Amino acid sequence: MARVVLKDLTKRYAGGNLAVDRLNLEVADGEFVCLVGPSGCGKTTALRMIAGLEDISSGEVSIGDKVVNMLPPRDRDIALVFQSYALYPHMSVYDNMAFGLKLRKTPKADIERSVREAARILDLERFLDRKPGQLSGGQRQRVALGRAIVREPAVFLMDEPLSNLDAKLRVQTRAEIARLHQRLQATMIYVTHDQVEAMTMADRIAVISDGVLQQVGTPKQLYEEPCNRFVAGFIGSPSMNFVELKVQREDGMRLVCEGTQVVLDDAMAAQLRDLGLEAATVGVRPEHLRVGEPEGPGLRVSATVDVVEFLGNDALIHAAAEGRDVVAIVGADIHLAVGDAVILSAAPRHVYLFEPQSEMSLGAR
Ligand code: ATP
After folding, report:
1. What is the CATH architecture of 4-234?
2. Ligand 1: residues within 6 Å at CB?
3. What's the predicted TM-score (pTM) here?
């Protein structure tokens, strides 16, 4: 296994399109890191540069402390798993998994041992004689994983490997990949646009937007302490609610707009005063809104319910607050109907403040 270090990694495509802009990232030996971001943000390009499938415009990729910029993919000691399994349809599962080792002229007995071990780990032993066409999508993706495992690479690189699977299989295979990582203790870099996938599997997540790394941290750090509005909105489902509010200094310090106000606690008020801000973007997660008046300082939204989605334990409420949509998750025992007037509130510890121009977080309180 090996660590991977990206230094100022940059990709500028012909025509000037800057797909990856000075990406700096260290993936520790044995770590599982997800590169996550919306479509087109540059995550696949970054992965392909690590793999050696894309030329690097500038910067450096090191694998196991060796700069590999000039090495072809086969000499980088990596294994790739893509969205499309790319299995040979005429070969059995066994032969698909053994193929790479045969090409490397690995002794037959060693191939047999590696393939059987990978099949055992991935619960594929029963399928070794089948052709890929006789397998489900999830099983095929496991064969693709098996093909990667038998090579015992220093680093696994995965690009949206679950996106061809239906929702249920995705959840199952996600757990299998997480288990696989724990078992192999392998270095893994995994690209996905799905923040839930990243949150559930990764040791650390790197959030990318428009080719630029926004924040790297554990799932908990990104959820609790997003560095800016983009990360706050991207991590968490449903997304954080945002509203622009103006500072009002009468009667204690507040942030206000029609229908919404935040009565600031001392720490928040001091922050805004120190920065001399006259306005701020306020963020609150749907799961942190509760129905009822705030019990002290904090956020208060007066809104009208316009959609209620029953989820079982909870209900997802869309409410209109002076033309702005507010989403809240409330207990299903709270009976709200379309057209009801509702007061939603959140405690100060759940209220995020962002500088309106830079969109940077005003920090932990
Ligand atoms: P997705 O999740 O949709 O695959 P992504 O985050 O992986 O998106 P990339 O495929 O890395 O994004 O693409 C990043 C940017 O580079 C996009 O704007 C894309 O249009 C552009 N791009 C990708 N490949 C090329 C290419 N061969 N030539 C020019 N531009 C490209």
Report:
1. 3-Layer(aba) Sandwich (3.40)
2. 13, 17, 19, 37, 39-45, 193
3. 0.92
